[in-house]
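FIELD: query
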Amino acid sequence: MRILLTGVSSFTGAWMATALAGAGHEVVGTLQRPRGAYPPLSQQRLAMAAAAGVTLAEGPSYGTQAFLALVERGWDVLAYHGADVRDYRSADFDLFGALERNTRGARELCRRAVAAGVGRLIVTGTVFEPFAGTGDQPERAVTPYGLSKALSWEVMRFFAEEAGLPVGKFIVANPFGPLEQERFCSYLARSWLAGQTAEVRTPDYVRDNVPVDQLAAAYTAFAALPPGDPAAVRAAPSGYVGSQGEFTARFAREIGPRLGVATPFTLAEQTDFSEPLVRIATDPVAAAWDEGKFWDALAEDYARRFAHERISP
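FIELD: result
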């Protein structure tokens, strides 16, 4: 298949593009600026994707005439993965600005896509949207970012259906793995490499931590479905489900021996319950998976990226 993918410089986007190319698909990933202008971590992701055979198209940002011209070349799948994620953890996230930027020119995009013979649109969502996952309060958006993704999906779906463009939604939970940004897992690894005790402040939250290679494999399988397949409408792949305290214990068991460090951590008495206690994805991941290989690669990534923080024995 021929696949046009936005958001290729992101953590999940780079892994999805790499998996799609590895499955034999022709993949073009769009960049909003010259490749050399991206920060070092994003450049590493782009290098991984390019090494897998992904073509990187510099300049045709979503919503521009250059992007529409690229869409008009015709694709089997238009993979709409990019989104405004600036300050996505903040309660002051620019909800309405993100919605405008995420959906700019959506009607024209869908019309041109149909005219060019695009077979299918896939929109990436997040489990933190309302009605995107399961658990307690599944109807609630967990964050303003989650709400922006839900509203963006509704806009894209409306104009896709209006134009007669088949559309599906791929929902992402809590991905982790090599080349991730600074998040909970990288905090744990950095703490232990520095000889420190990590603190888990929200150990009671039940979440869905998905190895990024499993997520990418699930995305690849979803993208390959024909537009008329009922399974092509929605996918929400699941990973390690459990409390954040339980996940920390698993993470410590896997990463500690591979890094050759002690992995002490404390579970704080959780007092912040501003988010739903349970929010997880709904679909088991069916793809075969080499779990040991994943953890090996993750440990190697941490050892390389955080070598300067490792204490001397």
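FIELD: remark
Residues 130 and 140 are 5 Å apart (CA to CA).
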